[in-house]
Structures are given as C-alpha cells and as structure tokens.
C-alpha cells in the first residue's frame, strides 16, 4: 500500500501534502434560529447526548420553539457534518443526510458545511472522523471535567484534501466498506439487546414468582403483577426504608445512580455530563444497603440499593433500611421493568422527561416478599444465571470493539492516503 501524498516537514512535524485548514474548505455555523422565531414553530432537535461515538443519531426530540431548550438554535442542511465542541472525548460527530426542513441541533455542535468545489460532503464526513483529526480536537480542547473547543480553534485544524476525483473514489470505497462493518456491528448489537431482554426476564420472573414452578399461587390483586406464590407476604416500601438526609461528609467517594446499573461510583464511568461541584458539603451520605433514587428519572429505572459507602447529589433521595430482608433481592425487585410504570404514575411535573417521583407516594408502593432464606436463594440464582449472560456479553462487546477499530483504521488509511483505494477495491 503506497502513500498517495508525500510527507513534508513543517514546524517540527510531518504533515500530508494537500492538508488544508478546515476553515479554507468549509464554513461553520452558517444558519441559526432567531429569537423572533414563532413560539409555535415545530422543530426536531438533536442534542449532544443523541449522537454516539460511531456517528449515529438516536431519539430525535420534537418541541415547540417556546418549549425547546435555549441551545436549540443551529440549522442544518443535507451534507453538513455536526461536530460536538463540548465533551470532545465522546467524539459525537455525525453527518446530516436528507434532514427535515425543521431539524435543529444544539449550539454545543459546530455545523461544518463543506465548500462546493473544494471539499465534497461525502469525503468530509470521513475526514472529520479520521483519528488524527479526532486527536487534534481533543488536544485543543480546554477543561478537565468538561473539555471544550471553540469553533475558531476547530476551524484551524488541518484535514487531508485530495483532488476531487480522488475524494469521490475514497468516498465510494468507504461507503461500501464501512456499511459492511456496520452491518456486522448491528448484528452483534442485536445479540446484546437479546441478552438484555433475557437478563431482565430472568430477574423479573425470579423476584415475582420465585424458583419453584410448582408452588401454589394466589392473586396479588395488583394488575401489573398478577399471581404470586401463596406464601409471599405483602408490605409497603415505607415499611422497609425511611428517608434520610445526612450531610457533612465531603471527603467520601461520589456516587451516581444509573438506569442500567443502579448505584455506582461516579468515577467508574466517563459518560456523565453533570459536573461535580467543588463544594460537596450539601451532598448526602449513602451507607451500604441504602436505597438511592434519582427523583427525575425513577420512572426510567434510575434507582438501586447501594453496595458502596459514599455521598450523592442533593437532588437524589436517600432511604435508610429499617428491615432485615436481603438487600440484593430488594435491589433486583425494585428495579424490575414492571415497576417503572408504577413509578411514572406517582411522579409529576411540567414535562414528562422532568417528572419527579413523590417520596410519600413511593413509600406507599406495595411489594411482595418471600422468606429471607428464599430471597437469598433467588439472589444466588440470579447471580449464577446472569454471570453466564455477562460472559457472552463481554465476548460480544470485544468483537464489536474490534469491528469499530477496523472501521476507524480503514477510514484513517483511506483518508490520509495510506491505502490505495483503487487497488483495495
């Protein structure tokens, strides 16, 4: 594989002949909604959280202009590429293809519009995902917990700009080859989705019906639950936990609540956009066994019994245990998907995605518990069965990682001239 462009030395570094600063081959942030926009104007909105690291856009929201976030301002057109200028390590970069006329993106994105005759849109979407470009974006970003780059610094980053006919060949080659890889990734992702469904089914069945398929059943008189083992007893959440709010432990580990995991150490994840303040004096103490709830996202399943001692946001609710039950059983039972509609029904607010659960009504939620020894047997069963699924998940995720690495390497080689796309084709 011969390199298409020769290298020249400039400023102590090596650059490809044909590299040009982005601002010379594209414009940035050409169009925006004005403050005089009709309040009833209906728009489709992409926020930074809607774009993943592979450049896929998920869950586009709809708003009236009057109700839209204040950052919903940038207009986009077909052929544009949106590049996140905040939390740049997430690499939220996506091409805009055949958008509706009312598609608007966050001001947290830079909207890159290729200049006709200089940079082809089809080539641009790959050039802005080339690893050297991504590394340069991160290098020029400012800030530790919330790194950001301004549009002028982004525009000063050089990208490879081969002749137009070569851009066409590279675009055609990468369109074909990346689709093949994306099909494989999508197939593996479906496996992950099926594993998630299987995991939820195992847990839900175990914590609502136990492990003995021949056990005598009775009506629970709860519509979403149906029949339960006859010997399980009814209780209320408020008889198991009491709300607690203890402050003054700023030196402890900060904990977060995730829909997927429950309560975890915040530092174990890098995808939390909420900045931790310097002053932690108002953060609440969480002991092992405490139930922690994200009030605004409980209806999505963001709650769990903590396995850690630490502190958590004052916006959460912490409940101290007043029971002798098995904590892990309660954790699995309170997080099962069948309960999320119940949590939604006892939440309220102006917007559904900001509804807050009412602590008093949560305490009145009815649950059914087996004897403690049976709870422990159920926990052991769940642990054993989900471990098998986790092993398959880990292997599948490794395969997805390798496929994504292959895609990134292919883009890098084609865009920078390390790969002769004609010969490769």
Describe the structure.
- The chain is of the alpha+beta class and 425 residues long.
- The chain folds into 3 domains: 142 residues, Adenine-n6-DNA-methyltransferase TaqI, Chain A, domain 2 (Alpha-Beta Complex); 120 residues, Orthogonal Bundle (Helix Hairpins), CATH 1.10.287.1120; 136 residues, DNA methylase specificity domains (Adenine-n6-DNA-methyltransferase TaqI, Chain A, domain 2, Alpha-Beta Complex).
- The chain is 32% helix and 23% strand.
- The strands form 9 sheets. A 4-stranded antiparallel sheet has the order 4-11-8-9. Strands 6-5-10-7 form a 4-stranded mixed sheet, with no helix packed on it. Strands 16-23-20-21 form a 4-stranded antiparallel sheet.
- Strand 13 and strand 14 form a beta hairpin.
- Helix 5 packs antiparallel against helix 9.
- The two termini are 12 Å apart.
- The N terminus is likely disordered.
Short description:
With 425 residues, this protein is of the alpha+beta class. It has helices at residues 22-25, 121-127, 131-139, 151-155, 164-209, 327-334, 340-345, 359-363, 372-415, 421-424, and strands at residues 7-10, 13-16, 19-21, 26-28, 42-46, 61-64, 72-75, 81-84, 93-95, 103-106, 109-114, 158-160, 217-219, 227-229, 233-236, 241-244, 254-258, 262-265, 284-286, 291-294, 303-305, 310-312, 316-321, 347-348, 356-357, 366-369.
Features:
Adenine-n6-DNA-methyltransferase TaqI, Chain A, domain 2, four-stranded mixed beta sheet, single chain, disordered N terminus, 3 domains, Helix Hairpins, 32% helix, alpha+beta, elongated, 425 residues, 10 helices
């Amino acid at each position: 594989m011969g390199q298409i462009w020769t290298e020249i030395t400039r400023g102590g570094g090596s650059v490809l002949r044909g590299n040009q600063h982005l601002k010379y081959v594209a414009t940035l942030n050409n169009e925006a909604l004005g403050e005089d926009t009709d309040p009833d104007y209906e728009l489709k909105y992409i926020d930074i959280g809607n774009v993943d690291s592979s450049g896929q856009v998920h869950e586009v929201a709809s708003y009236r202009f009057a109700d839209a976030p204040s950052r919903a301002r940038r207009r986009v057109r077909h052929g544009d590429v949106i590049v996140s200028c905040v939390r740049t390590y997430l690499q939220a970069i996506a091409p805009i293809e055949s958008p509706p006329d009312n598609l608007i993106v966050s001001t947290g994105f830079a909207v890159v519009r290729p200049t006709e005759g200089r940079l082809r849109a089809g080539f641009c979407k790959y050039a802005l995902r080339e690893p050297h470009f991504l590394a340069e974006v991160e290098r020029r970003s400012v800030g530790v917990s919330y790194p950001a780059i301004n549009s002028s610094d982004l525009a000063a980053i050089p990208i490879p700009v081969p002749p137009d006919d070569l851009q066409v060949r590279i675009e055609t080659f990468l369109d074909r080859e990346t689709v093949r890889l994306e099909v494989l990734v999508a197939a593996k992702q479906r496996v992950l989705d099926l594993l998630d469904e299987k995991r939820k089914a195992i847990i839900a069945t175990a914590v609502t019906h136990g492990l003995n398929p021949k056990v005598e059943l009775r009506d629970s008189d709860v519509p979403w639950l149906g029949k339960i083992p006859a010997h399980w007893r009814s209780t209320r959440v408020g008889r198991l936990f009491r709300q607690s709010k203890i402050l003054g432990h700023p030196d402890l580990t900060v904990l977060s609540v995730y829909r997927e995991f429950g309560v975890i150490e915040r530092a174990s994840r890098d995808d939390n956009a909420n900045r931790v303040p310097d002053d932690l004096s108002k953060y609440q103490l969480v002991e092992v066994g405490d139930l922690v709830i994200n009030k605004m996202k409980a209806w999505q399943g963001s709650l769990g019994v903590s396995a850690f001692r630490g502190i958590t946001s004052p916006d959460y609710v912490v409940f101290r245990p007043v029971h002798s039950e098995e904590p892990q059983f309660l954790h699995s039972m309170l997080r099962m998907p069948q309960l999320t509609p119940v949590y939604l029904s006892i939440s309220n607010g102006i917007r559904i995605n900001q509804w807050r659960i009412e602590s008093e009504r949560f305490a009145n939620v009815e649950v059914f518990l087996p004897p403690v020894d049976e709870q422990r047997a159920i926990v052991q069963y769940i642990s054993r069965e989900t471990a098998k699924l986790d092993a398959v998940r880990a292997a599948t995720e490794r395969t997805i990682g390798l496929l994504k690495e292959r895609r990134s390497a292919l883009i890098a080689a084609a865009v920078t001239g390390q790969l002769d796309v004609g010969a490769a084709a």
